[in-house]
Amino acid sequence: MPSANTSLSTSSPPPSSPNRLPSDPSLIRPQKLSPLVAANKSPPITESLTIKVSDSLGGAVPGVLHLPSIKHNGKETSASHRTAAILLSGAGGGLVGPSAMYLGMATKLASLNQGVPVLRLDYRYPARHKYCVADTLAAMKYLETEHNVSRFVLVGWSFGGAPVFTVGGNDERVVGCATVASQTAETDGIRKLAPRPLLLLHGLADRTLDSWCSKKLYQAYGDRFGNKQDREIKLFAGDDHALTKNAAQAEEMLCRFVMKCAGSKQADGEGQWMKETLVDGKERVNLMGRAGDLKGEEHVE
């Protein structure tokens, strides 16, 4: 085990006020929507919301929900809504994820012909594991109750790997888990994830959480299911904690992973749609700062 950090969790008391939704409209939907128009895609329905959490601290967790339009090319797509993706950020909370990938992912996935609802979820009290797990479970309950969702794909960045694997390993409604540069602390749930799919992405030049963390998680997933196991790890040479140098490729990989887990079939031309850039490279880190994704101990240099 290396001497590098393997956890961004904190045991300090929660602050007096929980995180709140930012008012910046550029954090709700990508400003660059011309590729969506060119691809003849219907813009997703986007809603800022807060979800009640029933635990010892109570309150509500903020998020942004992207829902497929009711019709695509005149056809109802409600059957594809059975599975939703929940995207979780790092130790500072936030809404756009590593290199603002979540902003592009949510728009792409919800605008597919067989659209996948996507919830970009903040935390009430970032980096505090048990409260972030409660936030995630509350979000699942909300989607189940309000949108008839019964299956979930969880995606997490950095600290976000902790609630992803804790919930994913212990709740059979979760049909797949993916992380970018996850920590290893509080991730024991990954040992109960197989044979459900797993995707791990990490930069080899990560100075916040060493790529050893993802290698360790890959091993922890286990081999006990033999050929039925479904795990993949991708390590990006020379890249950082937010995969700023390979953000477009990582975003595409995450989108395809969610589609696979959701059983969303790719229509003609949607392969190219997954490759489109909705957030310019120079704007990615700027958006992370504005959305609160860099308020924790994560660094992108």
Can you put this structure into words, describing what you see?
With 301 residues, the protein is α/β, with parallel strands linked by helices. 28% of the residues lie in helices and 19% in strands. The longest helix has 19 residues. The radius of gyration is 17 Å and the shape is globular. It has an 8-stranded mixed sheet with strand order 1-2-6-5-7-8-9-10, sandwiched between helices. The protein is built from 8 helices and 10 strands. It starts with 33 loop residues before the first helix and ends in a 10-residue tail after the last helix. About 2% of the residues have low confidence. Strand 1 and strand 2 form a beta hairpin.
